[in-house]
Design a protein that fits this description.
It is a single chain. The protein contains eleven helices and seven strands. It is an alpha/beta fold and about 260 residues long. It has a domain of about 170 residues: Rossmann fold. It is globular and about 55 Å long.
Length: about 260
């Protein structure tokens, strides 16, 4: 990629807005199932040797490394300082950058995203930024939370928060779209040939619901004003209320193309 196509990597202190908060070590321990189950989306991308590929929301770089291993030239972006550090420790080109504030222009043959876009509330801007990052004819494939994702777990957490005197945040932390809503956003950004579908995927939580709450809803607990010392008890109460370690994940898997 030419120097005119890519902006220099931002310093690790320049963090963008986010509805999530991550600790790479905690995520690797509790959330390892996320990249493990992202293989189907990676297969849909079908990265090829020599391609220039953007990984939107690379996390700790587990799937980014798989893209690199096929011989592609991959750049990962994430707005978590901890995650970017973990990805760089794997020898990856990982940059601290928000998906809605990408600084690339027609630099990539393809883009990929796994379990990220549902955290990006400025979805229209993100869709357009990804469109601009791709060369004409470039494809975008990935997976995110879809309509109905984690409905039971999220309801249980909010119920426990209210019962303990904490008001859940009044604004959305996630975008879990229907196929129609998702398609409309990306068509408006300029993408064509959009194939998007919802996939119900009940997922066993190896480390339990309580660990899921403290890891995956850390940002939600922050905004609800829950003191750190009370979080374990709240997480345990959510686990008891749910009564299962099977999370009601619903994924939206997609592939689309920027016109030539």
């Amino acid at each position: 990629m030419g120097e005119n196509a890519l902006i220099a990597p931002p310093a690790l202190g320049e963090i963008g807005a986010s509805t999530s908060q991550w600790d790479a070590g905690d995520y690797a321990r509790v959330g390892g199932f996320v990249p493990a189950l992202g293989q189907a989306a990676l297969d849909l991308l079908d990265p090829q040797p020599g391609e220039h590929i953007l990984d939107v929301g690379c996390g700790d770089g587990t799937l980014t490394l798989k893209i690199k291993d096929v011989g592609a030239d991959v750049v990962g972006i994430d707005n978590s300082l901890s995650m970017v550090g973990a990805a760089r420790a794997k020898g990856l080109d990982a940059r601290l950058m928000d998906a809605a504030q990408l600084k690339f222009a027609e630099a990539f043959d393809a883009a990929f995203s796994n379990a990220t876009l549902h955290w990006v509330i400025d979805k229209e801007r993100a869709a357009r930024a990804i469109w601009f990052a791709l060369r004409n004819g470039g494809r975008f494939a990935g997976e995110m939370g879809g309509d109905g994702n984690l409905a039971s777990l999220r309801e249980a957490l909010d119920d426990v928060l209210v019962a303990r005197g904490f008001g859940p945040p009044t604004y959305a932390a996630n975008w879990y779209p229907t196929v129609e809503d998702f398609t409309a956003i990306y068509e408006n950004a300029g993408f064509k040939e959009i194939d998007a579908r919802l996939i119900e995927r009940p997922t066993p939580l190896e480390h339990g619901v309580a660990a899921w709450v403290t890891t995956f809803r850390r940002g939600w607990l922050d905004r609800a004003g829950v003191p750190v010392e009370e979080r374990a008890a709240i997480a345990d109460a959510v686990a008891t209320r749910v009564g299962t370690t099977l999370a009601d994940y619903v994924r939206l898997r997609f592939i689309m193309r920027k016109p030539r």
